[in-house]
Amino acid sequence: MITAYLLWLYRSSTSHAPNWTKYLTCIISAMEKASHLSVIVDLSPTQWHLSAQTSNQYPLSIETFLSQLLAFLNAHIASKHENSLVVFGAFPGKSVLLYSSTELLSDDVPSLDANSYLPFKLVDSTVVQRIMNEFDAIGELDEEPSCALVGAVTKALCYINRITHPSSTTAGVAEDPSIVHDPRILILSVSPDLSSSYIPIMNAIFSAQKLKVTIDVCKVYGPDTVFLQQAAHLTNGSYIYLERRDALLQYLIMSFLSPTSIRKILAVPKQDKIDFRAACFCHKNIVDIGFVCSVCLSIFCQPLPVCST
Amino acid sequence: MPVQSLQNTDVIVPQHTPHPLLPFLQSQSQTTLTRLYQRPSSCLSVFRLLGPIERQLIMNLLWLESALSVATISAWVLPEGKDAYDSALAVMTGLHIAQNSAVKLALNSTFKSSLRQAITGGGSTGSFGVPTDKDGKRQSANIENLDAYALERWETILHYMVSSGQGQNPTKPSQGVLYLLQRSGLMNNAHGPALQITSSGFQFLLHSPHDQLWNLLLQYLHMAEERQMDLVEVLSFLFMLSTMDLGREYSTEPLSETQKAMLEDLRDYGLVWQRKTSSKRFSPTRLATTLTSSSPPLPSSHSTGGSHTADGTGAVALSSGAAQQGFIVLETNYRIYAYTDNPLQTAVLNLFITMKYRFPNLVVGMLTRESVRKALGNGISADQIISYLTTHAHPQMRKNNPLLPVTVQDQIRLWELERNRLKSAEGYLYKDFASQADYEYVLAYAKQLDVVLWENAGKRCFFGTLEGHANVRGFIERRTGSV
Question: Are residues B284 and B175 part of one domain?
């Protein structure tokens, strides 16, 4: 027997990856991209006053709420260096941009200290300072105008539209890391439904669907809102009614921190029943049975011989 | 048909790869890691290096005081995500971030309290670096200067590597860098006294700057272990740098001796800038502050290339996404136009193309069989060439789908396959069997052991692997003995 080196033809073997591994890889590569979060905070002074009353089972004051919210915002920025964040406040009668990670709003950058991470500190101080400014600006009014929630949603959508389509010249750049992957809007609502805003809310939902934006809703205080339930359902988001209000932060992190791609692996709660009622166009009431114009699809609470629109 | 098989290999998409630092961290002892986790900035950086599922799981557990039962957590996991979830848990336990018993899951208490502190701020660990007050007399370094400094340092290293094999004499990086390059196996002095680039060095050149940086830092960490440096201090200093703000000065006062020694090394790599070696303050550069992110660690190379890019054709490259430094146009006729005047980029391209013409801001070359085979001979793989061309493709190229011409991609892969036609194996040839029955009997036994590499029934001989020889030989001896 002799020792020898044998050479033979080398054939490369090919393997066929099964389809589902490909699907998972797609999800995983999507998860690696930066995500964008727009947070809309309902800051109606009356509702927050009611929410802090000790007669509630779990009283929640605005201070506690804000400190937990800031921890949540920091958690979002902590997850990835490129994650972008925008915070809008819905105040009575106006909506205000409170913080944006892409542009510096105030000139006074907080002084560095060795114990905190600068971006976190920037969010915390900017948001709190701006909310305080706005609250100070609200005068003693006899009647509080309704909260400009729709205005804030619309602004958030405009913002997302701007960052997802940076400019026409780079439209062909598919792998530009600055383009955010799955933008989300989180609405933290305390006010009840405003039936007069039915049409603007619906329009906002349709534009969100078109932009592929997920709308999440957390109902922090007050009764369920019909329109926001529909908003979450139609954009594939999740609507959560906060039952244990002392555990706000845990609710926020477990349900709203994960981008949509992770939700395919770690599930988030969705509402099991949705109120699909609409508001009539004539009196802006939420109706159980409506009458719809066969031409323009307007909804009325009583039959009309001639459509008014 | 080789072409058929090529198209199939395209289907295999790159899997999510964990960060190169994580295996290193996993190899460390629990006490080392727990000491590392005492600093909030380290926790934040480690957290960012983890995969997305790990991050979400950690966040879910972060604010819970008690351990959670495993059954509750797995109720969140959708059936198709089971594998991803299991591997995420394995990573977390490997890093000692989560304590995973059979029934309960909880975060390491040190990690939990430090990450909480990082997110809420406060405490007195000073782990995010102590900033210095504004100095009225001297102006602190602005961001452009820092970028230029980092770029200059980094390109010096790379340029030294790429030109070492061509008999040129570029500026030498410092002794520490040379030693690191040699230790990491990217260069060696096998042929004479001068350092020569190795095949892994060639591969290194085609990686993204981010990968290159971590590659070197990982080697640095291995070296730190041998130099008896405290690994926790080395790591936490790196992590601290990654959470610092670009364009600010920090004080060296609170640093330990080990970390002060590190400053010198990191200055050579371009991660840290200091006015003088004895200076009491330092500024991190973009290389350092983007360590835990995926944003580009170096500013566009065009900016330092000279004045030519500002006008004419160079303006095309600059106008759209200057950060995205695409400059290569590849045509279906294998011709490459590279809008660059950066000597480093030209030198890297020269690894696998044949240069035709050079203009102040444009290099024209061809991908030829010879040039690609030269690159393959240097240890560069076809995939590396293709991925380099893809990542540095000109914005105009990005309108194409697929981005690179398929003919060129396939041809590069075919050239690689050409080299792989032969494969060698060591073993034994069994021949001169007395009868066909003997031959078949032994062959059947060898096949059972799965050691047959080649057989020829006509010549009554077969070839077995080295490992199987003892068994086959024993079998034949037993048989001849018994007969």
Answer: yes
Rounded Cα gap, residues B160 and B172, in angstroms: 6
> For residue A259, which residues of chain B lie inside 8 Å, CB to CB?
52
**What CATH number does the domain containing A40 carry?**
3.40.50.410
Q: Tens digit of pLDDT for each residue in A112-151?
A: 666 778 888 888 888 888 888 888 888 766 677 788 888 9
> Which of A68, A256, A266, A270 should one mutate to test binding to chain B, selecting the residue with the greatest count of B CBs within 10 A?
A266
Give dist(CA B301, CA B205) in Å, integer: 15
> Chain B residues with CB inside 8 Å of A249's CB?
63
Q: What is the DSSP string of B207-270?
A: S-HHHHHHHHHHHHHHHHHHTT--HHHHHHHHHHHHTSPTT--EESTT--HHHHHHHHHHHHHT
Among candidate residues B188, B206, B208, the one with its CA nearest the CA of residue B198: B188
Tokens of B209: 């700057």
For residue A121, the distance in angstroms to the closest alpha carbon of chain B comes to 8
Give the residue numbers spanning the domain of B365.
Answer: 305-419
The model's pTM is 0.77
Q: How confident is the model over A186-231, as pLDDT tens digits?
A: 999 988 887 788 888 999 999 999 988 999 999 988 888 888 988 9
- Quote the domain boundaries for residue A227: 33-166+178-275
**Partner A contacted by B63 (CB < 8 A):** yes
What number of other Cβ atoms are within 10 A of residue B226's Cβ? 8
Chain B residues with CB under 8 Å of A9 CB are: 421-422
